Amino acid sequence: MDSQESHVIVLAYPAQGHINPLLQFAKRLASKGLKATLATTYYTVNSIDAPTVGVEPISDGFDEGGFKQASSLDVYLESFKTVGSRTLTELVFKFKASGSPVKCIVYDSLLPWALDVARNLGIYAAVFMTTSASICSMFWQIDLGLLSLPLKPQTATVSLPGLPPLGRCDLPSPMSEPTSQTAYLEAIMEKFHSLNEDDWVFCNSFEDLETVKKLVKAMRGKWPLVMVGPMVPSAYLDQQIDGDRAYGASLWKPTSSQCLTWLATKPPRSVIYGSFGSMENISAEQVEEIAWGLKASNRPFLWVLKESEKKLPTGFLNSVGETGMVVSWCNQLEELAHQAIGCFVTHCGWNSTLEGLGLGVPMVCVTERTDQPMNAKFVEDVWKVGVRTKKDEVGIVTREELEKCIRGAMDGESGEEIKRNANKWRELARSAVSVGGTSDMNINEFVVKLLEGKK
Ligand code: UDX
């Protein structure tokens, strides 16, 4: 069969932290001989620039601005399910009519209805998990009844097979705060309930990172996850100057050239890079503490903060002068890979965590919600590549705490140990996606099956 006929649609939830790994996966499939098309919503489709991959819009019912136009998250997800199912089906028919039939839909785990679309069309379905395998294992164990939700108020620690003991503050926020994000939790649990119906379950992680053998044993051998990550563009993992050096999607305009010029004036491994992801919504009090904590660390810093003019304390930028730079958006990978960067103050979104690990940058974790606390737990206690900040009694990371953690990650014996571990994980991440590595082989198996399969 002509490989051009082995066509895969990769469906991404329209957020930066979801488009990045799914687009990267589509690019890897294309580099291995499949025809890959990324499908996402009308208002994100024009932000994508990836020449080896086709890009097509589908509708979530809010074509001008998506989620922000909807009255609530429930309304948005319900609309995406109804309108998205119809428009994704139309897209598959359109490709069939044009002589490029689709064999498989790889879909984001936040869009579980795509499984029914694939089933109704008689094509393969593969779900792509954008969080860690440990998080997936936890949700699956909940679905299997090994842990009941909501947690009882007196539950302080959760012990699950294959995972380290997790304190309440380590758990994903829909679990630790049962009233928050119930729509997301429902979408996630719906997916875990139907996990065995997918032809493949991909995870953006790699086998060494998550001691998969332990997780498989914990699930009594019923472990459907296929590790294909980290989905970080390979030129960064290989430290090549050319090659694939961008995700190929940016929902905001980066100010990267300015940042690189500024970084070039700083000594190697001296700069703190601070970023809290694409959905950052940090309170004014917390911004103030971060600002003075960065200043007190006495090192140069580059900080990504949207609407900084409204949020930064008065006089802060003047007081730091050339030592600090604040931008609203940048090409994070380009900055993180710069030799001047010595530490990453991060919210521990899964993509940022994998980027820090894959580029060997010590991390300081200042988490907000969702999977971030559990990722931070692993950064500090399992992989030992960073330091996790503690919040005070009103839920704020104080300037003193931030300064202390930055010193712990960059200075003295603890800093040296973190650097050694960071180098080790960087090497393991690189080898997982290199030719013959575990993730690379897992992707090859999928590609071979699609090239030969009948569906
Ligand atoms: C969210 C969740 O936090 C994450 O855990 C989940 O798995 C996916 O959705 P987000 O909060 O945006 O994502 O964080 P993260 O997962 O780190 O993704 C952000 C992406 O935006 C990263 O790939 C990062 O490189 C990129 N980024 C961030 C930029 O390119 N420029 C910036 O200035 C900031």
Automatic annotation (TrEMBL):
One term of GO molecular function: quercetin 3-O-glucosyltransferase activity
Keywords: Transferase
InterPro entries: UDP_glucos_trans
A Pfam family assignment: UDPGT
Keyword Glycosyltransferase: no
CDD domains in UniProt: GT1_Gtf-like (cd03784)
Keyword Transferase: yes
Endpoints of the signal sequence: none
Protein family (similarity comment): Belongs to the UDP-glycosyltransferase family.
Protein name as catalogued: UDP-glucoronosyl/UDP-glucosyl transferase family protein
